[in-house]
DNA sequence: TTGAAAGCGCTAACAG
DNA sequence: CTGTTAGCGCTTTCAA
């Protein structure tokens, strides 16, 4: 059927060991036999089986990527850059989408281990710390992306969530808003953004209202649901800091349903700067994560750890977020109607 | 390091064959030994290596998925459903994004073969027919998704592009438009949508203007570029049928740049009904593809072909598209300004 | 510079 | 019902 190393060896009239050596460029072989083998390989359209190779203990040249929801543009965009960059470096990527379910995390991680991936990239929203710990001890390189949890001894590539939260809130504060709701995800990085939010208030000497801190899972629906809730309060917020673009869009849609004008009646700022932020009208003011840079960096780091072995010192790389002011935030209007 | 079948055998005081049998539920083993082996496996946290298993000729339980651009919401949404459904069926998915490059197609297909995937799902935009032919002859099941090319002897799961093109155009026609530009992708399914476009004209006894048929690659930028072009004609179109949502959004943005109001000055209809179609204002009128159904179906079909072997008769499954009328299309205004 | 042979972890006859 | 053994395709000593 498909050519094996034996077929090539026979055709080239050498031993399989010789063929193996020219494939891997190991040992010393005469120029002529090398040429001959190469030629036969090409002629027979031979490609070594990764499976057999992996069984001998070599790497599989495969990375695992765990995301909570590949249909969230933030993750699909990051997956794209990771995939591209990894392939440039000769690795392929198995992408698994966990749907925010712990059981799926567990299942996929076991699966990926069984497939002998060389390294694993996990992203924001990962919940099962024990599992992680287990992977670490089993020596397979793991990196966390966009999930800045200092309590784990793992390399991290992330945006500076604290700074991002601070910037977003400060922007709103500087526009005169003081009643700002923050809708955060139930993940670590959002927790840190909340810290930035509080810090921003603090530096203005205002006390944030704890009731203004909401948490949910990333989706348009949840954003909408929460803003509807918020809007039914006696004193609704005049601005919302949504911890990602999906939620921000839900907020905008919900507010519009209530007849509010964005940004005149409600300022909204998002986070991530995905494609969604550019397609709304007005376009969404948001905090940009350097998605491409982060994706490339995480690949570089994990490849480095794979090659250097697990003794490499763990890195913690924080990218600086950027405030992108577009049309969904404006100065607070006089409240006297 | 990691437990192997030998470790389990020794610990359970049986042979590896016995262990193998309980793993695979083959042969007959006494209840007691089975129990013991099971228990030891659990105790040692043993999981059979996929690599070793694959080498013996069994399946890898892995599917390949080739998309041209995972950051296009259509593909990331379809990838999500495929991934979910496949995992429910016990398969994992390797997603590769080719960036619309033939060389990458080639590279990934070779790679996937080397990894001994059980089946391959390729999507719209695939270009290299020869490669496909080669895969078919090499007996590995291949299915095409959203790319309805009757010239290939492969199973197809797709939306009815002809009907979709017809519906979109008819909708515009029924609104009084007769100067409708169609911006299609350079892929087969778009070609068929163009046929539907022409058919719609024909059934109204109008002759479409060939200059109104444009082709490009899916992206917001391209949509914008083309509409800007179109708008600079002496007699610009009054409506645009964009063959996907990304292009449609580019069209909207470009038209707005020129000061046009959507839909009053220009009606726009998209295709796909991705998340993007719901986030614009006004929301995008579009032709919906049943993404979930298609994704699930394609997984079912490929698993079926994997299990039944290549003698299964090839299927051609067409889903019916649906017109979703939202805010970007309206009746043609009187042209007298 | 080349080749023989052991072994990676598992499956699948075939014996017993 | 259980165990022995021969591969699967490749890498890697170790000899020649």
UniProtKB/TrEMBL annotation, chains A, B:
Domain HTH lacI-type positions: 3-57
Family matches, as SUPFAM superfamilies: lambda repressor-like DNA-binding domains, Periplasmic binding protein-like I
Domain of life from the UniProt record: Bacteria
Keyword Transcription: yes
InterPro entries named among the record's database cross-references: HTH_LacI, LacI/GalR-like_sensor, Lambda_DNA-bd_dom_sf, Peripla_BP_I
Record keywords: DNA-binding, Transcription, Transcription regulation
UniProt entry tagged with the keyword Ubl conjugation: no
Protein's UniProt name: DNA-binding LacI/PurR family transcriptional regulator
Species per Swiss-Prot/TrEMBL record: Virgibacillus litoralis
């Amino acid at each position: 059927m498909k050519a094996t190393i034996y077929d090539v060896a026979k055709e080239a009239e050498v031993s399989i060991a010789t063929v193996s050596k020219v494939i891997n460029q190991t040992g010393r072989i005469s120029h002529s036999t090398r040429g001959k083998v190469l030629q036969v390989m090409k002629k027979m359209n031979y490609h070594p089986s990764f499976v057999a190779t992996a069984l001998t203990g070599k790497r599989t040249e495969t990375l695992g990527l765990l995301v909570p929801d590949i249909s969230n543009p933030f993750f699909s965009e990051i997956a794209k850059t990771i995939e591209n960059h990894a392939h440039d470096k000769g690795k392929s990527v198995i992408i698994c989408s966990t749907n925010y379910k712990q059981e799926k995390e567990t299942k996929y991680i076991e699966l990926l281990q069984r497939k002998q991936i060389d390294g694993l990239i996990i992203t924001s929203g990962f919940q099962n710390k024990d599992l992680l710990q287990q992977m670490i001890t089993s020596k397979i390189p793991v990196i966390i992306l966009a999930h800045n949890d200092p309590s784990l001894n793992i390399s991290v590539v992330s945006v500076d969530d604290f700074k991002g939260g601070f910037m977003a809130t400060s922007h709103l504060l500087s526009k005169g808003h003081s009643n700002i709701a923050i809708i955060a995800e139930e993940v670590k990085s959002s927790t840190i953004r909340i810290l930035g939010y509080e810090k921003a208030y603090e530096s203005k000497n205002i006390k944030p209202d704890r009731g203004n801190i909401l948490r949910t899972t990333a989706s348009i629906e949840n954003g909408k649901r929460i803003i509807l809730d918020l809007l039914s309060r006696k004193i609704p917020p005049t601005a919302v800091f949504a911890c990602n673009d999906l939620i921000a869009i839900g907020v905008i849609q919900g507010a519009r349903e209530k007849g509010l004008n964005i940004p005149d009646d409600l300022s909204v700022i998002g986070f991530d700067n995905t494609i969604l932020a550019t397609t709304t009208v007005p376009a969404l003011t948001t905090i940009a994560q350097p998605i491409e840079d982060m994706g490339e960096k995480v690949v570089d780091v994990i490849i480095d750890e794979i090659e250097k072995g697990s003794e490499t010192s763990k890195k913690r790389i924080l990218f600086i977020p950027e405030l992108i002011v577009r049309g969904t935030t404006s100065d607070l209007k006089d409240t006297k109607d």
